[in-house]
């Protein structure tokens, strides 16, 4: 009897499309996961629309485990979609996600055109979440290679990945958190990030 496939859904971040996750997709597939892209409109549509679609997609991949890996805004949406207990089991990995709110987003709203750039995701990015109290284990990978424009438009703290501060990726209730030498967009092509993400999906921990 063959074992049920272990599914992984990948969520891109703000202003991106699914192809941005192509390298991570390939690496996780090489780790033995059955990987799927989840595309959504990050600016023009309200986050609630993406959350409802994501929940439906997770249910469609049941009955085996369905993990979710989200980059930046995608990680925030993953947590919101998986807060309730009526979904298949699985873990969540957030990559450079401003779970407690984004200083860069708050800074951008005070600049001309900032509201338009953030679109319907503005409030979610500005404020983030208070804590994680869902039943899924959540691991967060943050970067500390300061290459990006986010630090020029808002306060992201001393240690950051160029877009999101390390402290902005922390949230009460997380299972594990690690910091790697990578930038915000560099996470998507980093072999170290892919390896740590795969380890957490399998074992619920990062390699110290």
TrEMBL record:
Q: Which domain of life is it from?
A: Bacteria
Residues in AB hydrolase-1 domain copies: 8-136
Instruction: Keywords in alphabetical order, please.
Output: Hydrolase
Q: Which GO terms describe its molecular function?
A: hydrolase activity
Pfam families referenced in this protein's UniProt entry, alphabetically: Abhydrolase_6 (PF12697)
The protein's matches in InterPro entries, at most eight in alphabetical order, are given as:
AB_hydrolase_1, AB_hydrolase_fold
Q: Which PANTHER family match?
A: SLL1969 PROTEIN (PTHR37946)
Could you tell me what this protein is called? Alpha/beta hydrolase
Q: Which organism is it from?
A: Luteibacter yeojuensis
């Amino acid at each position: 009897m063959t074992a049920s496939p272990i599914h992984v859904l990948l969520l891109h971040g703000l202003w991106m499309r699914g192809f941005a996750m192509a390298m991570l997709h390939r690496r996780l597939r090489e780790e033995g996961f059955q990987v799927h892209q989840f595309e959504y409109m990050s600016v023009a549509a309200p986050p609630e629309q993406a959350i409802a679609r994501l929940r439906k997609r997770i249910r469609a991949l049941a009955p085996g485990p369905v993990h979710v890996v989200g980059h930046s805004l995608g990680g925030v949406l993953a947590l919101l979609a998986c807060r309730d207990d009526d979904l298949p089991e699985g873990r969540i990995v957030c990559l450079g996600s401003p779970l407690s709110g984004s200083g860069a987003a708050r800074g951008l709203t005070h600049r001309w055109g900032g509201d338009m750039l953030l679109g319907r995701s503005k409030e979610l990015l500005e404020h983030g979440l208070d804590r994680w109290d869902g039943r899924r284990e959540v691991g967060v990978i943050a970067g500390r290679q300061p290459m990006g424009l986010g630090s020029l438009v808002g306060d992201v703290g001393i240690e950051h990945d160029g877009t999101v501060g390390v402290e902005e990726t922390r949230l009460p209730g997380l299972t594990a958190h690690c910091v790697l030498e990578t930038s915000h967009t560099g996470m998507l092509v980093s072999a170290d990030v892919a390896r740590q993400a795969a380890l957490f999906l399998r074992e619920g921990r990062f390699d110290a």
